[in-house]
Amino acid sequence: MYEDKIRKIAWDLLEKGNVDFIIGWEKGSLPFLTAPLICRDVAETERLVWNPFCANNLARYLKYYKGGKEKIALCVKGCDARAVSVLLREEQIERERLVLIGLPCHGLINPKKLLENFPDITPGEVEWEEGILRIRGKEENIVHLLEGSCTRCRYPDPPIHDFLVGEKLGEGYAESSEVEDMLEYYDKMSTEEREEFFAREMERCIRCYACRNACPLCYCQECFAESTRPSWVSPAPLAFDNLLFQLGRTMHMAGRCVECGACGRSCPVEIPIDILPEKVAESIRKEFGFESGLDTGETAPLLTYREDDQEDFIK
Amino acid sequence: MKTLDWEPKIVAFLCHWCSYAGADLAGVSRMQYPPNVRVIRVPCSGAINPLYIFKALREGADGVLVSGCHPGDCHYISGNYYARRKFMVMKNLLEWLGFEPERVQFSWVSASEGQKFSQVVEEVVESVRSLGPARKMIKEFSFDVRR
Amino acid sequence: MKHAGIVKKSDFITWLASREAVITSERLIRRHKELVSSVSAMEVRNVKETVFPGFGTLFSYRWEDRRWIIEDIPVTAKKCTVLVHPCEATALNEVLDRVFMNGEHPERDYEKLRSSLELVTIACEEPESTCFCRMVGGDPFRRVPDTLFVVPLEDRLYVECEEPNVWELWKKCVKVPSEVEKEIAEKEKKSREALPDPPLSEEVPEQLYRLFEDEEWDNIAWKCLNCGACTYLCPTCYCFDIHADGRLKGYQLRSWDACMFPRFTLHASGHNPRPGYRERVRQRVLHKFSYFPMREEGRFGCVGCGACVEVCPVNWDIREAVQRMVKKSGAGYARSS
Ligand code: SF4
Ligand code: SF4
Ligand code: SF4
Ligand code: SF4
Ligand code: SF4
Ligand code: FES
């Protein structure tokens, strides 16, 4: 059982003193939720879990330890590992200080979709074991319940890891014809519809910055959005300023975003905000053939150039 | 929303070594170009942060022009190559979101191209004029949610 | 004096439809769609938006003829009937009112918006997994003062209030049959039992205060992202920021702010008295469970609605945090209830 293996690895690491603490997920206080967990004590490793509700990208917590000495073991899904790889590339943390417990990921379940498809379902009725989902005792296909970003996943296996718990999956749902890519839905809209959609969503944004704070790659000490001199956007959640905040953030993610969807999942008013950085990640993949977080030695696409880059948009 | 006495306001970010000099040349050569541009001189097109552009739009610009040296001519060797990538990504995003492409435009203008500069400005101003004022950028405040 | 009555559901809906404007909270719609579906009700995510919106203008200013011209922008307030649950009504009545309307200098805009509201409290028959109103002195059947208390029944409503004269609806109410009274009492008991967390004792505020320097805060706070989701959707969080928008011409704006943001306490010198997640999370917990009740006659600054638990991206659960600290402090729970 994967969970047992994770706990065993975590236990050993702590017991032998190889790491100072483990960062993983534990069961949440509400149904179909997990919460990030830090284990400093071997006894706490019993609380570690691994299931399709482990939505948080734990690479986000590495920023606390920048410049420190602690050795950290981190549980990583495919996209979490890609985020770690970007942090390594950007020299936010040292590889020697990390032990990565890699978890090939079958995709995250969106709790909303789960409840829509199976009204009145209780946590006890959902079983998950080694890639097989059973709901009320019956085997179910996870693809109808996936989180948006997971429908576009191309790297379910952690590209960097020290341990690997479970079998490598090879390809993600991006390859699968059963799954509709989340972005396709927005791509199919006419430009007017999309504009309208975003205008409405930006009116709902309360500028809580959960999206930014959940993102593993938004680690700035002072974010442009909160800078007062100069002030780029109003701190008040005016619709246009909300949009500019998102545009600014999305531009900062260009060539870095690992398409984990953590930003979108964290939004308290359910704005699927991850589509912006993910759209840019897609356009960077198409234009420059670059995918972020696969190789720590890579150069980010916006930190380099080719003399024959496209320029037909320039007069 | 077009009003009779409305004139588009264009903010132009020009690199010091080429486009700004080009604008200067247009000026000293007495070339005519519309007075709608407000020029902001920057060291290099590579120094233009997309936030500058967003901020200009937020503060009421109807359009933005970004201009630098021709590829290969950048005073800092490669600033405009980086800029080109960055702006392409930005432009794709803005257009996908339904911003009119004419609102943010780009050009290469060298120090000797006074003529080209005035022509580019002309084009930018006219295309923005035909779009009308930047509607979505107008800030609307309301204190009462029960309006 | 308590007055109770029974009214037909259709009469209630007709009465609602006759109101100038109706506002409901999102959670109420989730549970009682039938009450408001035929009325064009406005939905708010968080009830405080009705009196303390996310942003607003205080005044406009412009530089003209070498002087500043400042123009007041008073709010306009329409009469509104607000349908909410007891926790939300308590948030307005007992927390926000104390903050903005108490004492000599009531906040002008708040007062105006607040006095244009009439509150209808709909009792909760089925508390959700995030609810914990009982823990902080509330109750799913709490009769919040100055509100119309309503328990939806099959095709009738049970109604209770202190001043029947102010409610036009009262004319349609008839006497409560004794079997209904029994039914209400049963519902009340059942609903209360569905909330497992017992009320906190009176000593909690003082005891928690003593744990200010406790190292447990570190463990409690660690996973928090320091975003604004919980405070912005909390019906009692009332912090705001004031800023000018525009140089020579513009508006003075007021918008929500939150103690969870590092910038909230940042001094001009660069010093930050709440530098880390530990201090910020402690502030949120202690403000609601210690400072506020110590200052406001034991009224907790939290009404137990669970909105923060519901929206938190990392499932940071304030109940767990409080229970952990309360246990540590030895204060415990009230015996009665
Ligand atoms: S998490 Fe959602 S509401 Fe909060 S700032 Fe981001 S988009 Fe806006
Ligand atoms: S921007 Fe969103 S999708 Fe991209 S890395 Fe950050 S959290 Fe993940
Ligand atoms: S949005 Fe940009 S400035 Fe803000 S934290 Fe993210 S990367 Fe940094
Ligand atoms: S408790 Fe949750 S919602 Fe509140 S600031 Fe922390 S992460 Fe955000
Ligand atoms: S906390 Fe839940 S049960 Fe209590 S009053 Fe609020 S909505 Fe009702
Ligand atoms: S100096 Fe002109 S673009 Fe770099």
Topology:
The complex is a heterotrimer of chains A (315), B (147) and C (337).
Chain A: H1 2-15, E1 21-27, E2 34-39, E3 48-49, E4 72-76, H2 78-89, E5 98-102, H3 111-117, E6 126-129, E7 132-135, E8 138-140, E9 163-164, H4 182-188, H5 191-204, H6 210-214, H7 239-253, H8 262-266, H9 275-288
Parallel strand pairs in A: 1-4, 4-5, 5-9
Antiparallel strand pairs in A: 1-2, 1-3, 6-7, 7-8
Helix pairs in contact in A: 5-7, 7-9
Chain B: E1 10-15, H1 19-28, E2 37-42, H2 50-58, E3 63-68, H3 79-96, E4 104-108, H4 114-131
Parallel strand pairs in B: 1-2, 1-3, 3-4
Helix pairs in contact in B: 1-4
Chain C: E1 3-8, H1 9-18, E2 22-25, H2 26-31, H3 33-36, E3 41-44, E4 55-64, E5 67-72, E6 80-84, H4 86-100, H5 108-115, E7 117-122, E8 148-152, E9 156-161, H6 178-193, H7 204-210, H8 216-221, H9 229-233, E10 240-245, E11 249-256, H10 277-295, H11 307-311, H12 318-329
Parallel strand pairs in C: 2-3, 2-6, 6-7, 7-8
Antiparallel strand pairs in C: 1-9, 4-5, 4-11, 8-9, 10-11
Helix pairs in contact in C: 7-10
Written account of the structure:
The complex is a heterotrimer of chains A (315), B (147) and C (337). Chain A is of the alpha/beta class and 315 residues long. Chain A has helices at 2-15, 78-89, 111-117, 182-188, 191-204, 210-214, 239-253, 262-266, 275-288; strands at 21-27, 34-39, 48-49, 72-76, 98-102, 126-129, 132-135, 138-140, 163-164. Chain A has one domain (2-308). Helices cover 30% and strands 12% of the residues of chain A. In chain A, the strands form 2 sheets. In chain A, strands 1, 2, 3, 4, 5 and 9 form a 6-stranded mixed beta sheet that branches. In chain A, helix 7 packs parallel to helix 9 (275-288). Chain A is globular and about 60 Å long. The mean pLDDT of chain A is 92. Chain B has a single domain (10-145), classed as 3-Layer(aba) Sandwich (Rossmann fold). In chain B, 37% of the residues lie in helices and 16% in strands. In chain B, helix 1 (19-28) packs across helix 4. In chain B, strands 2-1-3-4 form a 4-stranded parallel beta sheet, with helices on both faces. In chain B, helix 3 links the parallel strand 3 (63-68) and strand 4 (104-108). The radius of gyration of chain B is 16 Å and the shape is globular. By secondary structure, chain B is an alpha/beta fold. Chain C has 337 residues and is α/β, with parallel strands linked by helices. Chain C has 12 helices and 11 strands. In chain C, the strands form 2 sheets. A 7-stranded mixed beta sheet of chain C has the order 1-9-8-7-6-2-3. In chain C, strands 5-4-11-10 form a 4-stranded antiparallel beta sheet, with no helix packed on it. In chain C, strand 10 (240-245) and strand 11 (249-256) form a beta hairpin. Chain C is globular, with a radius of gyration of 22 Å. The two termini of chain C are 22 Å apart. Classes of the chains: A alpha/beta (315), B alpha/beta (147), C alpha/beta (337). Chains in contact: A-B, A-C, B-C. At the A-C interface, strand 2 and helix 6 of A face helix 9, strand 10, strand 11 and helix 11 of C.
